Amino acid sequence: MGGVKFGTDGWRAVISDQFTFDNVKKVAQAVADFINNDCGTLKVKECKVIVGYDTRFLSETYAGLVACVFGANGIRTVLSDRPTPTPSVSFAIKKRGYIGGIMITASHNPARYNGIKYKAYYGGSAGPEITKKFESYLGKNEVRFRPLAELKAEGLVEEDDIITGHLAFIKSYANVTLLKKSRMKVLVDSMYGTGNDYIPALLKGGKCRVDIIHNEHNPGFGGINPEPILPNLKELAEKTKKGGYDIGIATDGDADRLGIALPNGKILTGHKVMSLLFLHLLEDKKMRGGVVQTICGTYLINKICGKYNLKMYETPVGFKYICELMTKEDILVGGEETGGVAFKGSIPERDGILSGLLILEMMAMRKKKILDILKAIDKEYGTYEYKRLDLKYPDEKKPALMAMLDADPPKEVLGRKVVEVKKTDGYKFICDDMSWLMLRLSGTEPILRIYAEAPTEKKALGILQRGKEIAFSV
Fold first, then answer.
1. Domains in the chain, start-ordered, CATH in brackets?
2. pLDDT tens-digit profile of 286-337?
3. pTM (2 decimals)?
4. Helix/strand/coil (H, E, C) string of the chain?
């Protein structure tokens, strides 16, 4: 089990390679040992856990195996009665006052992957102190396992609907009545994931027209990765433009992230999605609080916080770090560059369905087209173009690259002086015009991620190229 490692959000591996029935049961046993040995002091309403699953190949079967291990360890378990959005699992845990829960998903990863996310009693991602416990328990005890039918008969495992309560909350958080009165034309792409047809269902019966694509069951995700970015959203972008839609909305494989297609056929970056949601809660819903983003977040958020005199926090990459701050500080919005955003008054968890409705609510409350809203933001705060490049990078070269960046960091990037270096997670070089370059290594793959932000797309691409040159100069 030495290969099992919990990364930025759970454990993920290739199905039938490392993600096998036996390994899933061993991980479930480690989690069960943690629950039985380390959660006794938690003040919860019920000593139960939830197990949910996505639409991937064998996800339902894996979920059943986890429930069988939990039940055999005396842990009362609620097994979802259908494929479930990750935020629905988190919401149910917090709302019902349970110990925690497991979500079987590899989120936005390719179809050949599956994974296990653990959600703690507060309804959010487990922090490093919890996942290290899981790893310490791996292989310590023999797997306890009993048939599902027996456990159900004894009441140790029950199947239940954990989605309806979450959708009811979303209807109370976003003004669905207002959205139904609007005459917006919306195209939804569920990317064959657990977002299903929930957004159209929430807006059904009003003047708002909502069409949907890719909501059927397809464990192969139609040959694309269920991540709401280009090129995976090419069809959504094209249909949004050709169909005359006001906006296109996409949720990822487990419906915790949001992608936005504009009427002109372009796709918004996750940074712009988060910025829109932040401004909507501040200016339209009159809510207040700080904001937290990862080290590769946008300077646009800094500018907005400066205008409203709000505190901005920065974390390493991984939503578990954002979640931790949201449980301790007064945070209005917490988000990352991939379109995952959480909100004050909800759960400390990304929620793609709620995020999508809040973008529509922003348009409805301002009575403006999305392009006009974006133009107004650019006019007030300036333009910020973000780009990212993932490169295959040999593991044996990683130490030398990091040592070079630490000992001899670049003094300038594309003619702009580097005025600050951040080492929170990788190396981020901030220039005197607030453009920046960041290099960060994947902890689980031979991948180097290069990030850039600049006032123009051309300059952002140039910064990426400079980052690539630095990486391969080692």
1. 11-166 (3.40.120.10), 184-381 (3.40.120.10), 385-471 (3.30.310.50)
2. 999 999 999 999 999 999 999 999 999 999 998 999 999 999 999 999 999 8
3. 0.94
4. CCCCCCECCEEEEEECCCECHHHHHHHHHHHHHHHHHHCCCCCCCCCEEEEEECCCCCHHHHHHHHHHHHHHCCCEEEEECCCCCHHHHHHHHHHHCCCEEEEECCCCCCCCEEEEEEEECCCCECCHHHHHHHHHHCCCCCCCCCCHHHHHHCCCEEEECCCHHHHHHHHHHCCHHHHHHCCCEEEEECCCCCCCCHHHHHCCCCCCEEEEECCCCCCCHHHCCCCCCCCCCHHHHHHHHHCCCCEEEEECCCCCCEEEECCCCCECCHHHHHHHHHHHHHHHCCCCCEEEEECCCCHHHHHHHHHHCCCEEEECCCHHHHHHHHCCCCEEEEECCCCCEEECCCCCCCCHHHHHHHHHHHHHHHCCCHHHHHHHHHHHHCCCEEEEEEEECCHHHHHHHHHHHHHCCCCEECCEEEEEEECCCCEEEEECCCCEEEEEECCCCCEEEEEEEECCHHHHHHHHHHHHHHHCCC
